Automatic annotation (TrEMBL):
Residues 130-321 form the Cation efflux protein transmembrane domain. Residues 342-401 form the Cation efflux protein cytoplasmic domain. Residues 1-47 are annotated as: Disordered. Its main location: membrane. The keyword Lipoprotein does not apply. It comes from Paecilomyces lecythidis. It is found in: Membrane. It is a multi-pass membrane protein. This is Cation efflux protein cytoplasmic domain-containing protein. Gene3D superfamilies: Cation efflux protein transmembrane domain (1.20.1510.10), Cation efflux protein, cytoplasmic domain (3.30.70.1350). Keywords: Membrane, Transmembrane, Transmembrane helix, Transport. The keyword Mitochondrion does not apply. The chain crosses the membrane at residues 125-146, 152-173, 194-214, 234-254, 291-310.
Amino acid sequence: MSLPHHEATSTGVEPVETTHYQHRTHSSDEESQPPPRYTPENDPFQLSSKLKSAEEIREIKANTSRKRDCAPSLVKKTTDAVTSRRLQGFYESQNESIQRMLKPVEEHVRDAREFTSQNQLKYKIAVWGSFAANVILSVVQIYGAVSSGSLSLFTTMADAIFDPMSNLTLLLCNKAVSKVNPRKFPAGKARIETAGNICFCFLMTSVSFILIAFSARELKTGSEDETNAFHLPSVIAVAVAFGTKFALFVYCWAMRNQVSQIRILWEDHRNDLFINGFGILTSVGGSKLRWWIDPMGAVILSVLISALWLHTAYSEFQLLIGVTADIQTQQLITYISMTHSPLITAIDTVRAYTSGPRLLVEVDIVMDPNETLQATHDVAEELQMKLESLPDVERAYVHVDYETTHKPEHFLKKEL
């Protein structure tokens, strides 16, 4: 894609002066404020002209409402309402994308650092709080399972025993990432977090398979009694575990999409809510209704646990293999590359894909063939450093060419 020749500076190279760039505030008169103002220097492609104000977005709903008042059909009214919401959602999403691209790279970095510093304590509480709670709950659930003899509670006990072990795995992986020998690991060790998450998933899945075998044997053997013995303290112990897991689930909710390890912990607490809640029901059902409800519940629980963790493992495998980044990230990387320097005449290719929890970026830029080697080197190196400063980018590779008619430099090696 060719770019127009201009003398504009990149929004990512220099912070925009406060006279030209106004942040949206959260005051009561926010909706009455006009969109931020941009100049040709910091908005060379006039993206800001596509911003919709809050008043314009509200007008879309008002226009649709007037049409509905005249519409004789209920179906027509419903269709117009859905169309109105979709249009509003589209323009709100477009505003967010444009403002994200126009934000200087330095501001992206500053926001990431502020988030990390503000949430460091919350992260430690989530990780170490989960670890301490899981250690205590494993003891409580061992008592509940052993004293009652319920297979459903044995399933919740096995899950509780392995929770602190898996938490310890995540802690060790996080520590390993921060201590890197660059000679031995030149690309860093960030992917060990993803590998640790996968080990976590398969550890929990393997426990479930063992419990399925025990429960199936119990169902095959049968029972002479119509119901099992009811043990109230065991039910209370698992109920305490349910309440604790719910509190941890709510606490980890806010940071689940920012930190991969917090997301794994959040998913673990979410799964434990299903496990403990369903375990209580089937254990009580086995003692009050029919004996086979208890082992059958253990089988259902174990299958559910396996399915949940195998789904999580599949997602983590995709990150490790390398899946394409989301559209918003690709747009941001493309825009930063396009506006990096007026010496860049075109962008040939932009690739962004996962390498563990972060991204690898490949950008092919086009420059004048008569430009000096020093100029092309400086432009490419500065772009590489800028892209690598983005919070989600692990490494960036910038390739310089003088035309766009060549075949791709890289191809998939399907055969040796």
